[in-house]
Amino acid sequence: MKMWGPSQRDSFREITYKVKFKYDDGDYSLAIDLMSRDCINVYELITDRLLVDFLSKKLLKLR
Question: Origin, by domain of life?
């Protein structure tokens, strides 16, 4: 059985979250216009919902 040292075990408790957005100046206005005319169903784009309180508790457990 392989044993993990403290530094190795702790390295598995790290989370990296990256988000990248790229858009032109007119994209925001176009998106709002399309949503207001019901051309885009934004509810289909939502995959999951997390309560901030739930997420913060889970992240604190990673410490």
Answer: Eukaryota
Residue 34 to residues 6, 7, 10, 39, 40, Cα–Cα distance (Å): 52, 50, 46, 5, 6
Do residues 59 and 14 lie in contact, with contact meaning Cβ atoms separated by under 8 Å?
no
Q: pTM of the entire structure?
A: 0.40
pLDDT at 43: 87
Query: CA 56 to CA 7: how far, in whole Å?
Result: 23
Domain boundaries, the chain: 13-61
Query: 62 CB contacts (<8 Å, ≥6 apart)?
Result: 13, 14, 15
